Amino acid sequence: MTQQFDVVVIGAGPGGYVAAIKAAQLGLKTACIEKYQDKQGKVALGGTCLNVGCIPSKALLDSSWKYHEALSGFKVHGIEAKGVTMDVPAMVGRKDVIVKNLTGGVATLFKANGVTLLEGQARLLANKQVEITALDGSVSVVAAENVILAVGSVPSTIPPAPVDQDVIVDSTGALDFQAVPKKLCVIGAGVIGLELGSVWARLGAEVTVLEALDKFLPAADEQVAKEAYKTLSKQGLNIRMGARVTGTEIKKKQVTVSFVDAEGDQSLTFDKLIVAVGRRPITNELLAVDSGVKLDERGFIFVDDHCKTSAPGVYAIGDVVRGPMLAHKASEEGIMVAERIAGHKAQMNYDLIPSVIYTHPEIAWVGKSEQTLKTEGVAVNVGVFPFAASGRAMAANDTGGFVKVIADAETDRVLGVHVIGPGAAELVQQGAIGMEFGTSAEDIGMMVFSHPTLSEALHEAALAVNGHAIHIANRKKR
Which family does this protein fall into (predicted)? Predict the structure, then answer.
């Protein structure tokens, strides 16, 4: 007899597992299907984010930054640290423990909320029937009143650099190096490429980043992107823009990368190559021909503003649909869909999804950039406050970067908050909270911020929008 559920979620990543938990909390009989296996061959929950993405990369970023600080940042504090070394296998092992704890935590949450976990490869059939091929090859079918597709994405590849997970790796392979490569190449100067490049550069690798685009971090505010390029270059990342990779050749455990840039045809040899050219949705084995769900030419699932697909009762969230491929976006879509299935009128504000790059300094933003607003013909006032003028940042010896607040020149409503510097992700979230409630720059400027804190930089940037900053000289209005 076919098992019946109110909701079947395909995929247990940050979109899927959150949707499943929320649906169960709302009283819906819920199942979640997952196929991903860990290094021990056991099904692991949490998707890319917990297993081979957000969490493990942050673990390595934090470990490598602590090592970097011990080598070159302690002396200013009067701390002498001699003979500091990095045990790379231990660092990677710590990362694996964190991943195991978190994925196990999701399984515990499923049990606590009454979510049924089904293991195997899922395929959506007609009429909201879901076929599951278990790890042992057996096939079963479950039926649902509603189906949520949350299967996520995998790293994209490019023909000139085929991944072998030995010399040429993707973002997953780059998390498991057992030694620091002497010379490392990263293809792609996006979020993943810069984060992974930073990890291994801090540990002593000579890192070259090849980016095909001519513009660095085009999604970021231009002023922030310019500062980021300057800072990361000073840290040792050799970022080469307009460099299109044309081929690779592996000899004696080294890879020669051929590329074309403004100077013509070039080639360089490295010990390791990381391919970080974006991600693509995993929809190739997800849908039967008669499922009723439509894809675009890139394999993304068509959905409306509430994540409904072209098939009645079938929804899709996260990396398989339009919008930024961000874990927090997927999670909030999952909650919205579960709420709507339960009969509530949940909405999601796609205009205020924060973006973060976890380099050091962190780079984060929410809302629109100054160049976007100018292109749209919106007159704005801008306030900028450097961390070099922040007492808290000085005390922490972390004064690089700034906070930038952009407000509508007519209404003073905040339209964007952009930060490069210490605690950027947390400061941008403060901006997002205010923007969700329609804050003006004056509103933020009138609030009391504790002293000394990094968040005072947001306060001062908001004051600076209208020429009222206290701890820096204000720009004279023309």
Answer: Belongs to the class-I pyridine nucleotide-disulfide oxidoreductase family.
Domain that residue 227 falls in: 168-277
Task: Please state whether 19 falls in left (phi above 0), alpha (psi between -120 and 50) or beta.
Answer: alpha
Instruction: Indicate the burial class of 111 (C-beta count within 10 angstroms; 0-12, 13-18, 19 or more).
Output: exposed
Whether residue 24 is annotated as binding a ligand: the answer is no
Contact predicate 44/38, CB 8 Å = yes
Whole-number pLDDT of residue 477: 64
Going by their DSSP bridges, the two strands 139-149 and 314-316 should be labelled as parallel
CATH of the domain at 412: 3.30.390.30
Query: Same domain for 148 and 16?
Result: yes
> Span 149-155, mean pLDDT?
98
Asked if 451 is an active-site residue, the reply is yes
Please count the CA atoms within 13 angstroms of the CA of 4 that sit on its side-chain side.
Answer: 3
- Annotation-wise, does 273 bind a ligand? no
Task: Kindly name the residue from 77, 344, 360, 451 that is annotated as catalytic.
Answer: 451
User: Binding site annotation covers 191?
Assistant: yes
